[in-house]
Amino acid sequence: MNVTTAQHLLAAAGQSVTADGIYGPNTQNATAAFQRSHGLTADGIIGPNTWNKLTQTVRTGSSGSAVKAAQAQLAGYGNRIAADGAFGPATRNAAVAFQRSHGLTADGIIGPKTWTKTSTPTTPAPTTPAPSNGRLTQRQALAQLAAAGIKAPVGRTSLAGVRARTIQGVIALKKASGCTIVITGGTESGHSTRGNHSHANGYKLDLRTRDEGRCVTNWIKTTQRKGAPRGTDARWHGTLAGISAEYVYEVPRSGGVHWDITFI
């Protein structure tokens, strides 16, 4: 089970917790409060007993934080769905595909058996947030993006080893701009590895500039601080939720134009 899923389930149970993907003191306290209210040992750790009490059956027509939790779990298995809290056709199709691949009855209903298959119900409870330079697995990154309403990256883009702070930065960009975010480049091979703040080191993401990307392009150019160009490519700077962002409108010799964004 990923942390974002746990946070959505806690919210569905009436706890005041933000689905930020960080299992810090607030989430630990919310877990302990939930456990006390259900007669469980209030240790702040989501083990099998707490997990069984937290999960809720959701299906077509369901809505709310429990649906977001299910969507976050399904997104972690590579399904291109947003955690919008509405159990519609896309979520049902993802649930059916998951059930078929795991030997379950493919009814599109996420009940106890499907919940159990989506996750190993053990969540550690660190008392401090993950360090800003902590690295995420592909599944962790996808789950955090899905929880924020950002679809999985397009093509062969990889997020394996991306910094937690980078994912927090692009989520903050979506919130600030209100735009659809389309990630087209991450930590996959093929990018320049020069410098500490490289794609390979998990600091950079490429975003689409055309189609859906026109919104974020307009937001960057009209709200962020324009700086000196990087070579021949225009560059802007800004801060998102305390994270410094450098936006380069990159026009490569080969390949498509895109935003090359560094989050520090």
Describe what you observe in this structure.
It is a single chain. This protein is an alpha+beta fold and 264 residues long. It contains nine helices and six strands, in the order ααααααααββαββββ. A six-stranded antiparallel sheet has the order 1-2-6-5-4-3. Helix 1 (3-12) runs antiparallel to helix 4 and helix 4 (65-75) packs antiparallel against helix 7 (138-147). It is globular.
List the SSEs and their pairings:
Layout (H helix, E strand, L loop, with lengths): L2 H10 L12 H13 L10 H7 L10 H11 L13 H13 L10 H7 L19 H10 L16 H14 L5 E3 L18 E5 L4 H11 L1 E6 L2 E8 L2 E8 L7 E6 L1
Antiparallel strand pairs: 1-2, 2-6, 3-4, 4-5, 5-6
Provide the spatial order of strands within the biggest beta sheet.
1-2-6-5-4-3
Q: How many separate helices?
A: 9
Question: What's the N-to-C terminus distance?
Answer: 28 Å
* Beta-strand percentage range: 5-15%
**Gyration radius from CA atoms, angstroms:** 19 Å
The helicity comes to: 25-40%
Major β-sheet, in short? 6 strands, antiparallel
Q: How many strands?
A: 6
Counting helices, strands and paired strands, the structural category is alpha+beta
- Broad shape: globular
Mean pLDDT across residues: 86
Uncertain parts: 120-132
Q: Provide the succession of SSEs.
A: HHHHHHHHEEHEEEE
Features:
alpha+beta; 264 residues; globular; 9 helices
Short description:
The protein has 264 residues and is α+β, with helices and mostly antiparallel strands. It contains 9 helices and 6 strands; from the N terminus they run ααααααααββαββββ.
